[in-house]
Amino acid sequence: MNEKSIFHLFRQVCEEHRDEIAYRFKRDGTWQTLTWGEHYETCKRISKSLIALGLEKGDKVNILGQTRLEWVQIDFGVQNIGAVTVGIYPSNLANDCAFIINHSEAVLLVAENQEQLNKIFEVRDQLPHLRHIVVIDPVADRPAEVLSWQAFLDAGRDVSDDTFLERTEAVTSDDLASIVYTSGTTGVPKGAMLTHGNFVFSSWSASESLYLEPYFETLLFLPLAHVFARLIVHFCMRKALTINIAESIDKVAENIRETRPHFFASVPRIYE
Question: Considering the entire predicted model, what is its pTM?
Answer without folding.
Answer: 0.96
